[in-house]
Design a protein that fits this description.
By secondary structure, the protein is α/β, with parallel strands linked by helices. The chain contains seven helices and seven strands, in the order βαβββαααβαβααβ. The strands form two sheets. It has a five-stranded mixed β-sheet with strand order 2-1-5-6-7, with helices on both faces. A two-stranded antiparallel ribbon has the order 3-4. Keywords: Hydrolase, mRNA processing, Nucleus, Protein phosphatase.
Length: 199
């Protein structure tokens, strides 16, 4: 339960903390919301010259360094496929991709949003493996968003709207979450899944 007038803290999570979660992070930030973003993969993976040659980086590698690395490798390819502009955007949001499973020190979130079912399952599993100390409930909401730049932009707009609706809830979100989600699904023709975990 979030006290009246208290700002919510939101976490946006995708696989590599590159596209969907970062676009949402950027848009939520511009909307004045308190937001962080993460990935759940073992590494940060970006498309390479072919399907079998992805560019792989460790979490914590600065977006600027990844940008410069790709620009060195093939500036035309990575400009054309949108990776260089995406990385430039990312550098204006934060320093480097962060891994959700390593974020325990980042404190407590009031809502966690994922953009892919597999990522949702990993976040739920990770939360269930943590020892609940505060007995503070947190909704984890998944909205499937294709991992391309256009869909990420649409998904981020919807994420802003959903987060604003939740932050505006007067009273206990647990009492209205079902109605809020089904109303949102009807309005936007998007299916959401959610689970409740505890800090």
């Amino acid at each position: 339960m979030v006290a009246e007038g208290k700002r919510w803290r939101f976490a946006m999570v995708c696989s590599s903390n590159m596209n969907r979660s970062m676009e949402a992070h950027s848009q939520l930030g511009r909307a004045g919301l308190d937001v962080e973003s993460y990935g759940t993969g073992t590494h940060v993976k970006l498309p390479g010259p072919s399907l079998h040659e992805p560019n792989v980086y460790d979490f914590g590698t600065p977006y600027g360094a990844i940008h410069d690395d790709l620009r060195r490798k093939d500036p035309d390819l990575y400009k054309r496929n949108g990776l260089l502009p995406m990385l430039k955007r990312n550098t204006s949001v934060k320093l480097a991709p962060q891994r959700w499973q390593d974020n325990v020190g980042d404190g407590v979130f009031d809502m966690i949003m994922t953009f892919e079912e597999r990522v949702f399952d990993l976040v739920v599993e990770d939360m269930n493996n943590r020892e609940p100390r505060l007995m503070k409930s947190v909704p984890i909401i998944n909205m499937d968003v294709k991992d391309n730049h256009e869909e990420a932009g649409i998904g981020a707009k919807l994420a802003v709207e959903l987060c604003q609706k939740l932050e505006a809830v007067d009273g206990d979100w647990e009492e209205i979450i079902d109605d809020l989600i089904s109303g949102f699904e009807k309005q936007h023709k998007r299916r959401l899944a959610y689970s409740i975990s505890f800090y």
